[in-house]
Here is the input.
Amino acid sequence: MRFDFITQSRLPLMWCLIAFILTFCITRAIVRYIRATAEDTAPKKWWQPRNLSLGGGIIDLTLSSNLLTMTDAADALADLDASIAQVNSALGALGSQAKQIEAHNGFVSKLMDNLEMGIGNLVDADLAKESARLTALQVQQQLGVQALSIANQAPQVILSLFRG
Here is the structure.
């Protein structure tokens, strides 16, 4: 049994592919281990769901609210400041996760491009090799047909000489 698909020119590419697959499997195992052993108090990663609820109560300021005294106005202002701080915190977390997702999408996009390019190079190399092989076989076939036609004509020529 011959293994024609493993040639000297393909060995470095095959080693790269094997190294990539091993790296992927090892990284995946490490990530699974980290996810399994992570505590709830650890900071959340971008792939882990988060609760982005603002918490706290709803602030109602109606026309009948009494803001004329200093203490009531200070209490309302403190509630508004707390609400604004909670919204800013949630927006910051959301923006941070959006950036992490964008960076991950960029990484995955580049990885897909590299894999497609590598597979394309493999296919192109195979097509070029097989095309050259097909051409060589066609030339050999044509030469064989010509040799047979010459060989079949030789006995006819010899017989014609004797008939002469």
